[in-house]
Amino acid sequence: MTSRSGLTHFDETGRPQMVDVSHKPATVREAVAEAFVWMQSETRRAIEDRHVAKGDVIQVAELAGIMAAKRTSELIPLCHPVPLSNVRVVTEWVDGIDGDEACLRVVATAKTTHQTGVELEALTACTVAGLTIYDMCKAIDRRMSIRDVRLLRKSGGTSGVFDLSATDTPSVLNEP
């Protein structure tokens, strides 16, 4: 179902359309995405010591990511509402570039048995978790940044498996 331009989200006259997936079989589909939240080392200590006035940053951010994945079709135009069978958001500290900087990696996994994939749900989960971390910590660190939101893996559907680690992509931790 592509238009003359080859884009699936536009019809023959150039009008936006939701892609018709009714002819596609429902298959198990899974996507994993990540984002990195860079911050000052003092901010990391406040998060780890649970000294952030708004509460437990990690738990709230992970929950916010799960909630966001469930609402992706309300946020992204023309995105199909997908019945999610599982969403998981986890965070882990990774080494920063120098001692004054800290980095929290957010990884989201979304899973469904449906006619279309869940890449956007995983990406939305990571992004909203990162935004939640920023919101909860902005009073102590306005220099935080959310970087390198990207799809790591996806499986299922007619396009098969995508695995970023199998491509020639530089490490995001080596980028400024």
Structure description:
There is one protein chain. The protein has one domain: 2-Layer Sandwich (Alpha-Beta Plaits). The protein is built from 4 helices and 5 strands, in the order E-H-H-H-E-E-H-E-E. A 5-stranded antiparallel sheet has the order 2-3-1-4-5. The chain is 26% helix and 30% strand. Helix 2 (57-70) runs antiparallel to helix 4.
CATH homologous superfamily grouping: Molybdopterin cofactor biosynthesis C (MoaC) domain
Q: Which strand order does the major sheet show?
A: 2-3-1-4-5
- Could you tell me the strand content as a percent range? 25-35%
CATH third-tier fold name: Alpha-Beta Plaits
**CATH class wording:** Alpha Beta
Helix content: 25-40%
State the shape. elongated
Q: What descriptors fit this protein?
A:
about 180 residues; alpha+beta; Alpha-Beta Plaits; five-stranded antiparallel beta sheet; 4 helices; about 25% helix; disordered N terminus
How do the helices and strands line up, and which of them pair or pack?
Elements (H helix, E strand, L loop, with lengths): L26 E14 H8 L8 H14 L1 H4 L8 E11 L6 E14 L4 H19 L7 E11 L6 E2 L13
Antiparallel strand pairs: 1-3, 1-4, 2-3, 4-5
Helix pairs in contact: 2-4
